[in-house]
Structures are given as C-alpha cells and as structure tokens.
C-alpha cells in the first residue's frame, strides 16, 4: 500500500455485510498492519490490525485510556471530559476501582447468578413460543434478558428498565444524534441514578449499587462521581453489548448449514461455540477502545509518538489468519480460541463471564424450545440494521422454528 493511500484512509470503514468485517482489515493486516487514518471529526489515528500488535496495545500501560477524556482528544463515541468511568481510567485509579467491584464479577459470583439467568431466559423464550413463529428475538429475548440481569444486579426497579433502555440507546448513538440529544439523555440518566442512590442510602438493599454506596460512605474508597460513572457504564455495556452479541450469534448460527441442529444434539459443545461466535462477531464495530500514547514507542515496526491516538482494531485481530486457521470461517469446535472480544490486559471486560453465561443460556433455551430455528419470514438479507449504534444489531430479528 502506498503512503498516499494510507494517508487517505477514513475510519470507520463500511462492510458489504453486517456479519463480515470491512475488506480493508484484511488488506491492512497484509500490507500495513499499523496504518494512519482519519476519524469523522478530522482527528488522526493509528489503526492497529494484527492480533499480536492489538494485544500489545491493549496490555501496554504506556497507552492511556484516561487521556481520551481530554476535551481535544480523538474519539468516536461521546466521552465526557474528565469522566470517572472505569472504562477510561488508568492505574492507580483503575486498579482501585476494579478491585472494589471485581469481586461481584468473579466466576463464582456469576455462576451464582446462572439460575436467575436461566429462569429469565426460560420465561422469555416461552413468551416467544406463545407469540408463535415470526416472533422477534430482539423484543422477546436479546434485549430484555441482559437489561433485566444488569438492572437486577444494580438494584434498578423493574418498572424503570425501559427508561434506561431509551436513555442508553441515545447515548450510544454514533453520528445520528446531536450532542444536545446525547447530553439530554445523559442528564436524565444521571439524575435518575442520583435519586436512586439517595433512596438506597435510606433503605439499603442486597444489590451492587448498595455495595458501592457503602464503599463510598464507610471507607471512602469510592467518590460519588465514580459511583455514578460505574453505574452508567454497567448499564450501557452490560445491556448493549450482550444484546448485540446474542443477535449476531443467532444470525451467524442460522447461516451455517446444519449448525443449529448439531448444537441442539450436542449441548456440550455450546461453550466452545459461544467463544467462536464471539470471535466471529462484528457487533462491536471496533469503535471505542482508542488509546493515547504517553511516550514515543514502536508498534509493528512503526514509530508512534507521544500524544498519538491509537485504535486497536479488535474485530480485525479476531480474523488474523496467523492466529486463527481459516479465520474467515465459523468453526464451532475451535480450540484454543484466543479471541479478543472481551479485550485484554487490565481493561479485560469485567463482565466477560457474565456475557458468556447470558449468551450460552439464551442459546440453550432456544435450542430446547425450538430445536432448529431460522430467520424468517423476513430473509436475513432484508433485515433492517441501524448504522448509528456503537454496538450493531438488526432492528428486528424474526425467527421461524
């Protein structure tokens, strides 16, 4: 690739199919694994596309997440200046907050939640059965399951779940909502959480929000701003990411001949299948994890200067042919599977095990009730997709069984 071609790259790229990565990724991995590109706001960024280089960027403390909160920092998603979200923290603040909340997301704690996830999924899939063939997976399962789980963990009343869905839908719009609309939604969410925290101070409950309030009030290990930011991050990431992964996973399965039937007959293969669906998925779009270099360094033989913005393209890394044999194909029994769908390093997703549990349980309940299923009556090619979400998914996903 010529230097001129590299300098005219515009990111995000478009794809010929929502389940496929942009063609530019394969070309960049082969010709220019660390390439200069321009974001919609005009800022320059280094795109890192190979698995080994992406892992390095994700794990290297010389790449800062916190620096993207500066007012003039390059970004693809709205990030408030000075944000105290764990998503954009660097050590030592990130280490302190992750240690505080991490105990809620241990494998043991998440496994304790599995019966509740199974109960919810059973109710929701039963609702699809009652609605009959053509029922919308998004409406009946992919959307309500993760938002119910995350709201119950935080202690958000059932009647308010739709409020959160509406606010976070606006906040994670990309290039579709005005800054005023995003700001208004963020303000409503913030005020709601402030009122909810005040209510839980008066009447503590057995939920994560009460745990965080106690940490703030009793041992001063958490500020009010950090508490609010963590609750907001949990709601957005725990809902949107999982909803999109369920939709992408189901669509991918239905496009593999015989895959649904095989999983229905061999449930023990579900864990490996879920990891492969996560590797293959394009739900994240690669539009969030920008880092800022804190010093001059080198990635993939390319010099990166202090202050440069670097975007590790996880969706590209997960299709790296040097790591994954037949990377462009779905292998539901693939092992090992070192995908980076949940990130890597200190920012490895806190909810990774919970996300796997939700996706596994959702598929298991569908296989139990439906046996085989397919998209319909609307053909997959005619599904409507929103191009303005940080986590892509079809607007509706009707199924036949």
TrEMBL record:
<dbReference type="InterPro" id="IPR002397">
    <property type="entry name" value="Cyt_P450_B"/>
</dbReference>
<dbReference type="GO" id="GO:0005506">
    <property type="term" value="F:iron ion binding"/>
</dbReference>
<dbReference type="GO" id="GO:0020037">
    <property type="term" value="F:heme binding"/>
</dbReference>
<comment type="pathway">
    <text>Antibiotic biosynthesis; vancomycin biosynthesis.</text>
</comment>
<comment type="function">
    <text>Involved in the coupling of aromatic side chains of the heptapeptide of vancomycin.</text>
</comment>
<keyword id="KW-0560">Oxidoreductase</keyword>
<keyword id="KW-0503">Monooxygenase</keyword>
<dbReference type="GO" id="GO:0004497">
    <property type="term" value="F:monooxygenase activity"/>
</dbReference>
<keyword id="KW-0408">Iron</keyword>
<dbReference type="GO" id="GO:0016705">
    <property type="term" value="F:oxidoreductase activity, acting on paired donors, with incorporation or reduction of molecular oxygen"/>
</dbReference>
<dbReference type="InterPro" id="IPR017972">
    <property type="entry name" value="Cyt_P450_CS"/>
</dbReference>
<keyword id="KW-0349">Heme</keyword>
<protein>
    <submittedName>
        <fullName>Cytochrome P450</fullName>
    </submittedName>
</protein>
<dbReference type="Pfam" id="PF00067">
    <property type="entry name" value="p450"/>
</dbReference>
<comment type="similarity">
    <text>Belongs to the cytochrome P450 family.</text>
</comment>
<dbReference type="InterPro" id="IPR001128">
    <property type="entry name" value="Cyt_P450"/>
</dbReference>
<dbReference type="InterPro" id="IPR036396">
    <property type="entry name" value="Cyt_P450_sf"/>
</dbReference>
<keyword id="KW-0479">Metal-binding</keyword>
């Amino acid at each position: 690739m010529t230097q001129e071609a590299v300098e005219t790259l515009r990111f995000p790229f478009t794809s010929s199919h929502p389940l496929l990565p942009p063609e530019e990724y394969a070309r960049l991995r082969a010709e220019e694994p660390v390439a200069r590109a321009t974001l919609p706001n005009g800022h320059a960024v280094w795109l890192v596309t190979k698995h080994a280089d992406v892992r390095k960027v994700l794990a290297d403390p010389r790449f800062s997440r916190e620096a993207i909160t500066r007012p003039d920092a390059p970004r693809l998603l709205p990030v408030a200046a000075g944000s105290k979200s764990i998503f954009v923290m660097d050590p030592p603040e990130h280490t302190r907050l992750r240690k505080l909340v991490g105990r809620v997301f241990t494998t043991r704690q998440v496994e304790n939640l599995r019966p509740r996830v199974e109960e919810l999924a059973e109710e929701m899939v039963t609702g699809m059965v009652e609605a009959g063939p053509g029922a919308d997976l998004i409406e009946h399962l992919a959307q309500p399951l993760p938002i119910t789980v995350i709201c119950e963990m935080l202690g958000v009343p059932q009647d308010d779940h739709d409020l959160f869905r509406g606010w976070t839908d606006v906040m994670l719009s990309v290039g579709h909502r005005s800054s005023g609309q995003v700001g208004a939604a963020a303000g409503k969410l913030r005020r709601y959480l402030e009122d909810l925290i005040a209510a839980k101070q008066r009447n503590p409950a057995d939920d994560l929000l009460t745990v965080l309030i106690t940490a703030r009030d009793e041992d001063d290990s958490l500020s009010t701003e950090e508490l609010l930011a963590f609750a907001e991050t949990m709601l957005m990431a725990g809902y949107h990411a999982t909803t999109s992964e369920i939709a992408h996973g189901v669509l991918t399965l239905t496009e593999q001949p015989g895959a649904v039937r095989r999983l229905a007959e061999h449930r023990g293969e579900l864990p490996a299948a879920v990891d492969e669906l996560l590797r293959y998925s394009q739900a994240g779009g690669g539009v969030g994890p920008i880092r800022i270099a804190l010093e001059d360094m080198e990635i993939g033989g390319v010099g990166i200067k202090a202050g440069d913005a670097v975007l590790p393209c996880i969706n590209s890394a997960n299709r790296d042919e040097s790591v994954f044999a037949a990377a462009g194909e779905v292998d539901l029994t693939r092992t090992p599977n070192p995908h980076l769908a949940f990130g890597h390093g200190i920012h490895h997703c806190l909810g990774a095990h919970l996300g796997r549990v939700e996706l596994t349980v959702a598929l298991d309940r569908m296989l139990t009730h439906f046996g085989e299923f397919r998209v319909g009556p609307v053909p997959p090619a005619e599904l409507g997709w929103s191009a303005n979400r940080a986590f892509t998914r079809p607007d509706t996903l009707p199924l036949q069984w």
